[in-house]
Amino acid sequence: DAGITQSPRHKVTETGTPVTLRCHQTENHRYMYWYRQDPGHGLRLIHYSYGVKDTDKGEVSDGYSVSRSKTEDFLLTLESATSSQTSVYFCAISESGRNGYGYTFGSGTRLTVV
Amino acid sequence: GQQLNQSPQSMFIQEGEDVSMNCTSSSIFNTWLWYKQDPGEGPVLLIALYKAGELTSNGRLTAQFGITRKDSFLNISASIPSDVGIYFCAGRTGNQFYFGTGTSLTVIP
Known about the structure:
heterodimer, A: mainly beta, globular, B: mainly beta, 5-stranded antiparallel β-sheet
């Protein structure tokens, strides 16, 4: 399997608290992505990165920020968690963003905001 | 964002039957992908399609890139219990992939 790990796998947090999810890869891929998965919506892109310190917004970026200080790590932060951010979060990596090879996904982080 | 409609939403079939599902959009895509997701895991890539009309197989799975570039189809022949899961389509435009809402497949032994 591709070397991509997400941590934590499960988290319960209170409304208004900050939360950081971590994605770590050992493939040295340039592109990294954060998606959220919700019933009836499939997977929706939150933010993505095309290199160290290079990030851009996806279609559901409000309330989220990201950072990539090293090739192997992509962090997703919820500055002040809300119940609407209860979801399963997936990180994905790709060697190239445009060549259509597709993504390799991590196993997900299940976040519950109470 | 882009809207990808997958149908059917769910399927219950007998082991050994063939399965067909599709993904449609009002937008044109340059690449179509099909993924399978097992419970508690991330999606795993099954098949990638790069040209309109392309037909690609991966074992018992066959997928096609629609001629209009607005749709794609996935067929599974002779289903087995381990085919159970959620199947997602994804279409690429520009730098981003957009995902369908998934087809949940249950195979009854």
